[in-house]
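Suppose a colleague, Dr. K., hands you the sequence of a protein chain of 460 amino acids and asks what its three-dimensional shape might be. Before reaching for any lab equipment, you can write down a predicted structure in token form. Begin with the sequence itself:
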Amino acid sequence: MTINTLLVDFACASILILLGMFLRAKLKFIQRSFIPASLLAGFLGLALGPSFLNILPLSEHIGSYAGVITILVFAAVGINGFSFSPGNMKKDLNRMGAYAIYKILGIALQIVIPIVFAIIVISKFIPEINYGFGLLLAAGFYGGHGTAAAIGTTFENLGWENATDLGMTAATGGMLIGILGGLIFIKWATRKGYTQYVKDFSEISEDLKTGLVKPENRTSMGKDTVSPIALDPLAFHVALLVVPAGLGYLLNNYIAETWNLEFPTFTIAFIIALLMYLVLGRGKKGIYKYVDSKIVDRIGSSATDYLVFFGVASIQLPVVREYWLPLTLLMLSGLVVVVLTLVVIGPGMNYESWFERSIFVYGYSTGVFAIGLTLLRVIDPNNKSKTLTDTAIVGPLNTPLELFAWSAGPIMLMTGQHWTFVGIYVAISIACFVIARIFKWWYWKIPLGERPAVPLDREE
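The predicted structure, expressed as tokens, is then:
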């Protein structure tokens, strides 16, 4: 591969992404489906690329881009660090505590049920199926295309070919289930009177439908934290992400060559980025005051859009055809999990604004954070349910569970420790239910139509 090959591949990707945005802005049926432009572009790339019609001059290397872009995405998560506010936690303990347990239970069940289903049921129909097959569901649904690429690469390094293609297919299916299924559930909830802030689905703003923000609704994507005379602010933030990404790759190669140990590169990059966040410091004397988290988020989101394109466009259709039956069964198991998490566990562990909070978790549990955010904005455009606020506070609690699943999961599932891995997340699931009952965070007996909204703060 040459630098010119890279240029042509990204040029083709950019053309199709812009075309996807144009289609989203102009075609009503696409607006009603809320399908992201990058996903539309991915489908176009799959149809026009080397896997099918072979019209576009895309190289055979497009399948390798997703794994590299993933490193940048996780570096962006690490460099933004974490936030925790004891004062808010004490004030709103019940609401946030229940929500934290709900989020943890959501990922635990999405890991446990598909893996057990794959081992006990799918393997009976397809005996040669890999025991790690079930983890691809959580990687694709909960993790999205970035995690699917990372997990697929790890599995392939352990000897399982085609894992990345299967993971990307799972992620694509999860995103469609998240968007289309989410809209169906929103229409259902508005008819039932379960929504607190939007009572009619037709109230959705034009900005959300077309994806084009009107001048009066536009917000800044970040601030100049360094002078362009010295260094462009965007270049400054890009450098902050490329450093841990590159160091993560080099360090992982060193570990592999020195100790013959295999770790996911994205995990190493995330840890390095998190250490940079801690070392840079957030105090008055810390360098971190010159880091704009909104710019970091935008870079990470931009990388995710290209990751989605290359992930979908590079899917090997023969592999999907070969695995169509186990993939279909796996998707169905995942669909059952996310629906139960939304309509059963959601109202059980969320009292105030239960549907708004549950649909957000449903959205990012079937694709990416942006899908959850899109669904939330449809019914709570001003975050009155405090879903995003609570997510920022309790979000770090999920990180260890995710990192262990994505890092240790493939190794344990490929080396005969599958039941040990499953047992860990079964124990976590049981602990969530026990904690919910002990702290009285189980509200199932209260009728759904009688649930209140989250109380507004005084200043609101």
